[in-house]
């Protein structure tokens, strides 16, 4: 961290040490063995950058947890939160409140089809929980289908729907969840050679699984439109439309999880627009207000909304549609509209990030595949391009994960904060990152991949 450009606005190591000491004494961190972690003490953030108390500044290629779609500390959103706090800081969800009503209106205007009713939650996991509850009550059926290589949240139903190892310690095996394989040509479970083959075989696999489970027992199929943390695997043309058709044929509710892919991340307001499909329920969170105040929700179509027109919906949250969160959503959506953030994300994917990553793949033997769109990309890192053996084993820890750990350390040394999951690094910066900032991060990524290359055969 030697260049002036990488220096933070100030340095106060003593303050940082105090923050770290209090954290280690009292904060219980998620997904972690508490004694084995060393959280960075963050002093501040702005735009696409954050910095620590030692004066080191990092370009954030993670967008927090892929939620700061308009970057940190956008003045219009900060001002909207401040103004709302001064006018009406909080109010119970049973009332009509201006910020809540306006947020719902703006979201409904942008969701596809007739997804015009909005049920607000505090985040994505609660959105998935409630979408599944709605589907089960609407259909009167118990089972819910979800894919391997997926993540839907850490609450009870959401974690059982999840198709990655974070589910294992909490999986009851009795949650009414049936998992299936979604398409992923690079590591095809169907021995496909083309996207068309992968699509057709994945759809047949899904339909066969439904047939053997009993279509009349299946309430919903839940899919991330583009799986996020699991690897940013864009579905092949026709797949989501095929799932829509299967669901229609059997009276199954089709739920798309847009918690990570939504609100501009893929170069569209919602990733479903890339595939010209309209689900029955759509979950959202993260980018809806750039994560400035916790907010998520379910967008509901007319048919399911009608189920609860005279029948009470048995679900709710104390902070559903919290005024501060909704004011942040209103401001965020307006910023995205006025500053053409969605269009900018599409431009970045097509003209900056995508071409640069494909160039890296040509020069680095550790890059097996490049996948993505907009500001939503993944590099699948491998030991051997021919066999596609991952750079580290599935769910590797400790010494087995050393190559990815070394790659991550190289990124941070060069001022880039990377998103790493298993054998992948994801390029998921703020959707309004400038071209110059994106190229700065890509250059740091290029240098770090040389470390990954050392572990290839």
Features:
five-stranded antiparallel sheet, single chain, 457 residues, 39% helix, alpha/beta
Structure description:
By secondary structure, this protein is α/β, with parallel strands linked by helices. The protein is 39% helix and 16% strand. The chain has 14 helices and 16 strands. The longest helix is centred in the C-terminal third of the chain and has 23 residues, at 341-363. The protein is globular, with a radius of gyration of 22 Å. The two termini are 31 Å apart.
Measured on Cα atoms, how large is the radius of gyration? Answer: 22 Å
| C-alpha termini separation | 31 Å
Q: Quickly count the helices.
A: 14
Largest sheet report: 7 strands, mixed
The residue-averaged pLDDT reads 96
Task: Describe the SSE topology.
Layout: H1 13-26, E1 42-46, E2 49-52, E3 57-60, H2 63-66, H3 75-88, H4 98-110, E4 117-121, H5 124-139, E5 143-147, H6 156-161, E6 177-180, H7 195-213, E7 218-224, H8 239-250, E8 253-257, H9 272-275, E9 281-284, E10 296-300, H10 302-307, H11 323-338, H12 341-363, E11 367-373, E12 376-384, E13 389-390, H13 402-413, E14 416-417, E15 419-421, E16 424-427, H14 435-453
Parallel strand pairs: 3-14, 5-6, 5-7, 7-8, 8-9
Antiparallel strand pairs: 1-2, 2-3, 4-10, 9-10, 11-12, 12-13, 12-16, 15-16
Helix pairs in contact: 3-11, 4-11, 7-8, 12-14, 13-14
Brief sketch in words of this structure:
With 457 residues, the chain is of the alpha/beta class. The protein has 14 helices and 16 strands.
